[in-house]
Design a protein that fits this description.
Blueprint (H helix, E strand, L loop, with lengths): L1 H15 L3 H4 L3 H4 L11 E4 L4 H4 L3 H11 L6 E7 L2 E6 L1 H13 L13 E5 L14 H16 L3 E5 L8 H12 L2 H7 L1 H17 L2 H15 L2 H25 L16 H10 L4 E3 L2 E4 L9 E4 L7 H16 L3 E7 L3 H13 L8 E6 L2 E3 L2 E2 L10 H19 L6 H17 L8 E3 L1 H4 L7 H17 L15 H11 L1 H11 L3 H20 L7 H24 L9
Parallel strand pairs: 4-5, 4-9, 9-10, 11-13
Antiparallel strand pairs: 1-3, 2-3, 6-7, 7-8, 11-12
Helix pairs in contact: 6-20, 6-23, 8-10, 8-11, 9-10, 14-15, 16-17, 19-22, 19-23, 20-22, 20-23, 21-22, 22-23
The protein binds arginine.
């Protein structure tokens, strides 16, 4: 497709007798693939050429339409309202199926060759349960990482655990008063959450507990071995639980260097800020004023000298740049943290680091449950464990009813159950606020993950019954409208991947793969495959293989498992 666009672009340039420099725009980049096939197969909008050519877009389009020399495979050009629409020979599309099958990485354009990206995502605060509020950062982050890896980036996935801060002083005090290693071993994070809640309640009655907690955290920071051991234990217990979910989803991190990892790297950063004359004392605390940039100040040191969330993020970014030499470093968090990132990105810039513009915050909308704010304290929270277990159980039950003889039933149920939840979480544009509902997350019908997995299994099943024939077997076959429509949809993949990559928007892939499934299912119903023969059958099998390849790759990108049989 790209090649054809290049050829058409130079033909169009010849027709208007201008060079790209004169037009001030790269012509191939203007080409669009109209959603509505009746409009044409490719369109060149002429609006941006009007100034340079001193003609109306409509006149430019009709002038080119008259004089353009059409390359092979292009049937005609038509000018409509400032657009130049090209109609392509279906035989051309038939040939494109080969191009897809020859290239297992069809869709990637090598955008990230030789480049490194670091992505900080999921990053839960330890000693807290893993709940639906973490679903967004986890699955959006992993999809963004997959997209980058697919396009050739070296990727470093970092789980920046929230494992440092004054709350650990409280937890240590609470643990020593009301809990034990055995209780924690038995009840896991739940025990930690319970003693934390108890601490909050009791410290309201007895404020001296807060002093104890502050002292305990200070001890921890000073390296008190007993406290460090307790803290490590909290971390181990928490990670054990989080890792179960990551494993279930097939998500792996390259690093678990959390906030605590940067404690010894902060004094140097504070010193650097001071030397660069960015630090200002404010009521005993140290801040970097940002009013010149329309933002409240970044808080660097508290009155008692302890560091803060922004301080740690700055130290971590400097360390990551040194360690990984990234071309970009992406942070995926809820939009509630947008100001935090804008502030400390600005501080990094003020420190004189020219790579500040390689820091990217990717926010997503906040999630509510039943129309209300998520809050562990009021119990308005859904644990990821429960959510996935429920989804898998539902999938298993449906399979029992519909396909009792299915081999690997449990494994397939895991794939479908997790697929439903993940697809649901990635189906809308990420910045939109969402309201979690069980019906939505566990829906298997309509435009859902299981529907995509089912379509993938359908294509796989066709190919199990008749293998995909070699190239050339379909030579000379002229595809029907339904077949051409499917090929056209498949050919949009590279552009959709590119858009998803540039916009950090996995929903572009999830919406796209639904289009592919819809086009495949229309083709499947209208064009008999196994009952056809000769070049026609060969083409249909090859088309099925190409569709399967792209649906499969889309599922991979979204972290949803492929299902060969459902
Ligand atoms: N632990 C934080 C939270 O749960 C998210 C961390 C995001 N990453 C970062 N570098 N600040 O809200």
């Amino acid at each position: 497709m790209e090649q054809l666009i290049q050829t058409l672009a130079s033909a169009a340039l010849d027709a208007c007798g201008a060079t790209e420099e004169q037009l001030g725009v790269s012509l191939p980049s203007l080409f669009e693939q109209p959603e509505d096939v009746a409009v044409g197969d490719l369109a060149l909008p002429c609006f941006r050429l009007a100034k340079a050519l001193r003609k109306s877009p409509a006149a430019i389009a009709s002038d080119i339409a008259v004089s353009v020399k059409l390359p092979d495979g292009v049937l005609r050009a038509e000018a409509v309202n400032g657009y130049l629409n090209f109609f392509i020979d279906p035989a051309f599309y038939a040939g494109r199926v080969d191009a897809i099958l020859q290239n297992p990485d069809f869709g990637a354009r090598g955008q990230g060759m030789g480049k490194t990206m670091v992505i900080d995502y999921s990053s839960p605060n330890i000693a807290k349960r893993f709940h639906v509020g973490h679903l967004g950062t986890t699955v959006i982050g992993n999809a963004i990482k997959n997209l980058h890896a697919f396009c050739g980036y070296r990727c470093v996935g970092i789980n920046y655990l929230g494992d440092w801060g004054t709350q650990f002083g409280k937890l240590i005090v609470a643990y020593k008063k009301w809990s034990s290693a055995d209780r924690v071993a038995e009840r896991g994070i739940e025990e930690l959450v319970d003693i934390y809640v108890r601490f909050s309640d009791e410290s309201e009655k007895d404020p001296s507990l807060n002093d104890e907690a502050r002292a305990a955290f200070a001890e921890l920071e000073r390296g008190n071995e007993e406290y460090l051991a307790i803290w490590r234990y909290f971390k181990e217990i928490s990670l054990r639980e989080y890792k179960k979910t990551y494993e279930l989803l097939g998500i792996e991190f390259d690093s678990y260097d959390g906030e605590s990892f940067f404690t010894d790297k902060m004094p140097a950063i504070v010193e650097e800020l001071r030397e660069k004359k960015l630090l200002v004392q404010d009521d005993g605390a140290w801040i970097v004023p940002l009013d010149a940039y329309g933002m409240p100040p970044a808080l660097i040191l508290k009155r008692d000298g302890s560091t803060l969330y922004p301080t740690r993020d700055i130290a971590a970014a400097v360390w990551r740049k040194k360690t990984y030499n990234f071309d970009k470093c992406i942070y995926v968090t809820s939009a509630g943290q947008s100001l935090h990132f804008a502030q400390w990105f600005k501080v990094v810039e003020l420190m004189g680091y020219d790579w500040a513009d390689q820091l990217v915050h990717v926010p997503y909308g906040t999630m509510s449950v039943g129309g209300e704010k998520l809050a562990s304290r009021t119990g308005n929270v859904i644990l990821l464990d429960d959510l996935f277990a429920e989804a898998i159980a539902k999938a298993e039950k449906i399979m029992e009813e519909k396909n009792a003889s299915l081999p690997n039933r449990h494994e397939t149920a895991v794939a479908v159950g997790t697929g439903a939840v993940i697809f649901n979480a990635l189906s809308g544009s990420r910045i939109k606020d969402t309201n979690f509902t069980w019906e939505g997350a566990l829906s298997f019908d309509g435009n859902t993950g299981p529907y995509v997995q089912y379509t993938y299994a359908r294509a796989s099943s066709v190919l199990r019954k008749a293998a995909c024939p070699d190239e050339g077997a379909a030579a000379g076959y002229v595809p029907s409208a339904d077949e051409t429509a499917l090929v056209k949809t498949l050919l949009r993949f590279p552009a959709r991947v590119d858009a998803a990559l540039n916009e950090y928007e996995p929903s572009i892939v999830s919406r796209y793969v639904l289009d592919v499934c819809a086009a495949y299912n229309v083709f499947y119903h209208n064009c008999p495959i196994l009952k056809s023969s000769g070049a026609e059958q060969a083409f249909r099998l090859r088309l099925t293989a190409a569709a399967r390849q792209i649906i499969g790759k889309s599922l991979d990108l979204l972290t949803i498992r492929r299902t060969e049989e459902i």
